Each structure stands twice: as C-alpha cells, then as structure tokens.
C-alpha cells in the first residue's frame, strides 16, 4: 500500500498554522480563546467564480462539500483557514460524520482566519486585524461559512466552560501575532479529556500500537 502524505503544490495554497498541544490554556492576558471544533481542517480558496477546498496537506476536496463554496460573497478572491464540521443529534460537532462521509451535504465551515483577500496577503497582519476582516467578509451570514468568534477572558475559565458543554476544548491564540504555517507556539490547543474526540484519539492510538506491536 502506498501512503500519500502530501499533494503536489497548488498555486494559492498555503499550509495551515497548527496549534501546539498543552494540558492547560494560558491564563495571562494577551490571548484570544476560541472553541476547538471536532472537525476536519480545510483551506478555502476563491479565485473569481471558482472556489476550491484543500485539506491541510493540500489535497483537493472541492467536490465533497457543496454548502461551503460561497460565490455570493462580495469579493473576487480570498483564502480562508477553517474547520469543516458536521453536528450530530446532540448538536455537537463530530469529525466521524465528516471522516466517514455520512453527511457531505450538511458539512459547513467554521472560519478561523483570513489569510488573503483581493490579492492582498494578510499573514503578517495581527490576528485581531485578520479576524476583523474575516468578520466583515462574513457579516451577512452564509449557511456554509460561519465565523468562529473568540473570547478575551481568562483561558482556564473559557476552557472550563467548553469542557462542561462537552466540546473538544479550546485553541488560544496570541494577540498581535502573524500567521505562520506549520506548528506554532502562538497557537495553543487544550483538549477536554472527557470529550468524544479525545476518547476516539486514545482508542485509535491504542489500536494502532497494538496492531503494529504484534
């Protein structure tokens, strides 16, 4: 079996920023805290009337999720970093629904960041400015593209409430930081150990180790 790890380079594609794991979120001021959704990372690239969806490794998933492309947005080009999500009967996101393609038509995107718009590269702009531009772009609302908002409260407090709601956890992003591809210390993820997503990760990791450990 041949394992594909990365697609050939595509013009306009940018490798996403990946949060560094931590047991507990930062408690100091100067951080923006977002809900971590149990989904599938996607980059949404629009060029004129054409909208393409790329995985974090650069594979083209444009044909999978008809709700996400948004030609009605009032710009000719953009690149949005986000999380493709489908919600179960309990209203919580579950990546298994996306992973096993049980409801492609209902998958939508929680937009996390705006990397470029109308040919302008925004990656060196502070995160607050990028998120402000993203909020303006999505202000009229769209079924397939929804803004991921943030809180500037104490990280542990936001994390505690996310855990109580049964969510996967939170991602804390350093205020004023630019966007950098790859693993970043400016983005920190804190996961809820009791969530479905984390339990699934533990089970899959155990299954992988026992299979290859024989």
Low-confidence runs of at least 5 consecutive residues: 206-214
Distance between the termini: 19 Å
Counting H and I runs of at least 4 residues, what is the number of helices?
A: 4
Shape: globular
The biggest sheet amounts to: 6 strands, mixed
Query: Which CATH architecture of the largest domain is right?
Result: 2-Layer Sandwich
What do these coordinates show?
The protein is an alpha+beta fold. The chain folds into two domains: about 20-35 and about 150-214, Dna Ligase, domain 1 (2-Layer Sandwich); about 40-145, DNA ligase/mRNA capping enzyme (D-amino Acid Aminotransferase, Chain A, domain 1). It has helices spanning about 95-100, 125-135, 155-165, 195-210, and strands spanning about 15-20, 30-35, 40-45, 50-55, 75-85, 110-115, 120, 145, 170-175, 180-190. The strands form two sheets. Strands 3, 4, 5, 6, 7 and 8 form a six-stranded mixed sheet that branches. The longest helix is centred in the last third of the chain and has 17 residues, at about 195-210. The chain is globular and about 40 Å long. Residues about 205-214 have low confidence and may be disordered.
């Amino acid at each position: 079996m041949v394992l594909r790890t990365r697609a050939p380079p595509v013009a306009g594609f940018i490798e996403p920023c990946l949060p560094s794991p931590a047991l507990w979120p930062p408690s100091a001021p100067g951080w923006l805290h977002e809900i971590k959704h149990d989904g599938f990372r996607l980059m949404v690239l629009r060029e004129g009337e054409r909208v393409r969806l790329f995985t974090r490794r650069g594979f083209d998933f444009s044909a999978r999720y008809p709700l996400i492309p948004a030609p009605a947005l009032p710009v000719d080009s953009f690149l949005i970093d986000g999380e493709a999500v489908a919600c179960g009967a309990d209203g919580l996101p579950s990546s298994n629904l996306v992973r096993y393609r049980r409801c492609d038509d209902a998958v939508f995107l929680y937009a996390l960041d705006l990397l470029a718009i109308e040919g302008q590269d925004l990656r060196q702009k502070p995160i607050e400015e990028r998120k402000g531009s993203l909020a303006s772009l999505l202000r009229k609302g769209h079924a397939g593209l929804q803004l991921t908002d943030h809180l500037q409260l104490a990280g542990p407090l936001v994390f505690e409430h996310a855990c109580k709601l049964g969510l996967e956890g939170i991602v804390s992003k350093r205020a004023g930081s630019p966007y950098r591809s790859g693993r970043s210390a400016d983005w920190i993820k804190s996961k809820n150990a009791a969530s479905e997503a984390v339990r699934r990760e533990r089970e899959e990791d155990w299954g992988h180790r026992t299979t290859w450990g024989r």
